[in-house]
Specification:
The chain is of the alpha+beta class. The chain is built from 6 helices and 11 strands. Helix 1 crosses helix 3. The longest helix has 23 residues. It holds the Pfam family Cupin_7.
């Protein structure tokens, strides 16, 4: 079960269909593993439908109707039969379906001793950089901060930094106010999907010399 979640604003934008494609993909993949956020999204979708209907008919929505929507937050979501059947026959993630291959078969490039990357930016429109990052089990990424916002979704394994432990399905957004050094937990490589609107900036005493050569 996920511990780190997108905030309500991001879920609202996802419900409204206003997120960029790579950000929407991150949220969608988080939702697949997070019943809590699926319940929140279900409520947002229901409220959005009510507001749309209200704007068309200019009628007052009863308190009982809102109460019934809020009550649904306490009920576990059951996927439709066709969705459950699809899951049983195809266990690939939405990302793997888009790429047409599994994560391990991608053309990974070694960036630093413990870090390999695969740039997926060409799969998406817009200026955001979309990358997969693989941190070998027990390995350390270089200390860095961010020139803008970086959204990260954990796909396999787990990593820890000063903000906590992030496991499969966890989602986090970091910005220029965060300086951290992710460390992969032992036992499994940690693969993350990241969406960046500006390059990272290495902050280590030696690695900062590499900043002119990274995007």
């Amino acid at each position: 079960m996920s511990v780190h979640h997108p905030d309500e604003m991001l879920l609202t934008e996802y419900s409204a269909g206003t997120l960029t494609e790579p950000m929407a993909l991150c949220i969608r993949m988080h939702l697949e593993r997070c019943a809590h956020c699926r319940s929140q999204l279900d409520m947002l979708n229901s409220l959005g439908a009510i507001m749309l209907d209200h704007s068309h008919h200019a009628s007052k929505v009863s308190d009982d109707l809102f109460d019934s929507i809020l009550t649904r937050l306490d009920d576990p979501e059951q996927p439709p039969d066709n969705e459950q059947q699809a899951t049983e026959t195809d266990n690939r993630s939405p990302l793997e379906k888009m790429l047409g291959t599994d994560l391990q078969s991608l053309p990974w490039k070694r960036q630093l001793a413990d870090v390999s990357v695969c740039d997926l930016s060409d799969y998406f429109p817009g200026d955001e950089r979309v990358t997969l990052q693989k941190l070998c089990a027990g390995g350390r990424a270089p200390s860095h901060t961010h020139g803008g916002k970086e959204a990260t979704l954990v796909l396999t394994g787990a990593f820890a930094d000063g903000n906590g432990v992030f496991s499969k399905g966890d989602f986090v957004i970091l910005d220029e106010h965060h300086d951290h050094q992710p460390v992969a937990l032992h036992g499994e490589d940690c693969i993350t999907l990241s969406v960046l609107d500006a390059p990272v900036r290495l902050t280590g005493r030696l690695t900062r010399l590499l900043n002119p050569f990274i995007r």
